């Protein structure tokens, strides 16, 4: 049997369409799904998840995702599962058939796997989609780890202590980690394709953001796969698009390239993205994103 703990937060107390879409996609691949929200959900919002999850837990917004995952994990009869996935709502998608990613991850033969490994600072499975395998569960490692999770003061503390710390702890105890997308070495042709993904303007005068994206791609030895390398994630079998790439665009990713990719794959409705961002970003930011998506 397989379980998933899906954590959620929305400042407006809404279970957004992109969350419902993800739950619907994952439903057929997990025997039990626990939905943990750090928002105050009314009856209507709770009801939206009906048919896609087995249990809904609402909790205080303390401890970020790891606090929610801990509570969800503790609600499971976890020794009965051969794997437990921990997923959050920070991505749009799956933007292609999730079976591709799930099968690829399960074939890795490792104890902790995820959609991506980030090799910045030190190699670690990124926590937006990570899976504890049978050995971590039945050895008691999973229980010990989640019992150790406590609320910390900042998101950066959470990342260093629990996201990066988890991968280190797994390996220190003799277990293994892996990911569907692990950019150990970035070949020049890969960088060229990623530059193509993120081009804003094919004319003779590329926009400043396009120049910045190119510089990041060419200079970063160990990129965060979920930012500029979003297209490479899709190609390698992890079709999840981080919301921050559109909302904050920290690495100057190409919005038109993202829209083009979604349209070409014809799996994920880009309207879900626009409806979510329209209520969660500034009007100016939304206008820029909407213009890119509606230009195709």
Question: Rg from C-alpha positions?
Answer: 19 Å
Helix share, percent: 40-55%
Q: Name the poorly predicted regions.
A: none
> How much of the sequence is in beta strands?
15-25%
Described by the principal axes of the CA atoms, the overall outline is globular
Note the main sheet. Answer: 8 strands, mixed
The first-to-last residue Cα distance is 43 Å
What is the structure about, briefly put?
The protein has helices at 17-27, 43-48, 64-74, 98-106, 134-138, 141-148, 155-172, 188-197, 208-219, 230-236, 243-247, 255-265, 270-280, 283-294; strands at 2-8, 32-37, 55-58, 83-88, 91-92, 112-118, 124-125, 129-132, 177-182, 241-242. The chain has 296 residues and is of the alpha/beta class.
Task: Describe the fold and architecture.
The protein has 296 residues and is an alpha/beta fold. It has helices at 17-27, 43-48, 64-74, 98-106, 134-138, 141-148, 155-172, 188-197, 208-219, 230-236, 243-247, 255-265, 270-280, 283-294; strands spanning 2-8, 32-37, 55-58, 83-88, 91-92, 112-118, 124-125, 129-132, 177-182, 241-242. The strands form two sheets. Strands 1, 2, 3, 4, 6, 7, 8 and 9 form an eight-stranded mixed β-sheet that branches. A two-stranded antiparallel sheet has the order 5-10. Strand 1 (2-8), helix 1 and strand 2 (32-37) form a beta-alpha-beta unit. The mean pLDDT is 93.
